[in-house]
Structures are given as C-alpha cells and as structure tokens.
Amino acid sequence: MASKLHQFGSKAVQVSEFISKHGKAYYEELLEKNKQHIVQPPTIEACQDLSKKLFYTRLASIPGRFESFWKELDGVKHIWRNRKEFKVEDAGIAALFGLELYVWFCGGEIAGRGFTFTGYYV
C-alpha cells in the first residue's frame, strides 16, 4: 500500500510539472480555437445571463422531450400488440442491444473506479 502511495505521489509530481510547463500554451490555444463561442465582454453578468438562458431553454425543451417519450412508448406498445409477427432476427437484435448496454454500464463502472475490479487487491 505504501509503494502504491509513493507511485501515486511521483505521478502527481510529474503531472504537475507537465501542467506548469505546458498548461498556459494549451489554455491559450484552446481559447483561440473556440473564440467564436466566447461572449464579449466575458463578465460575471454575461455568465449569469447565459446560465439563465440555458436553464430556461432546457425547461422549454421539456414538452418536446415528453412528446418524444410518448411516441417511443407507443412504438413499444405497437411491437407488443404485434408480437406474433416478431421474428427471431428482431429478438437477436434486441438481445445484442441489451448486451451492449450492459457492457457499456459495466465498462463505465470499471473505468470510474480507475480500471480496478472490486474485491481484487493487487
């Protein structure tokens, strides 16, 4: 455990040295590439105004999302009503889709833990 802590500390030092050398150049390059998205003048009031616009725009999009949800649900109901026409190929596609979702979920969990497996201490 102590060796892992020492390795982490040395990696943290390396990262902080890299950021201190290259951080400003990266920051300036990033701002230059995305200057069309920067509101002038960049003030606190402009940020607050944009925050309100984002909030109320998202709020205004709820009815459209609600309508899309009900359309999707109607599609599922239609498939359920016509389940006698459901083919093996459709079941295979649905199973693969479900498997893909499960793998993405598990992969995300593992990545979120720093690519460690719970219960295994190496």
Automatic annotation (TrEMBL):
Top-rank lineage group of the source organism: Eukaryota
Pfam families linked to this entry: ATP-synt_G
GO biological process: proton motive force-driven ATP synthesis
GO molecular function annotation: proton transmembrane transporter activity
Localization of this protein: Mitochondrion membrane
Any one Gene Ontology cellular component term annotated for this protein: mitochondrial membrane
Keywords linked to the UniProt accession: ATP synthesis, CF(0), Hydrogen ion transport, Ion transport, Membrane, Mitochondrion, Transport
Principal cellular location given in the protein's record: mitochondrion
Keyword Transport assigned: yes
Family affiliation: Belongs to the ATPase g subunit family.
Protein name: (wild Malaysian banana) hypothetical protein
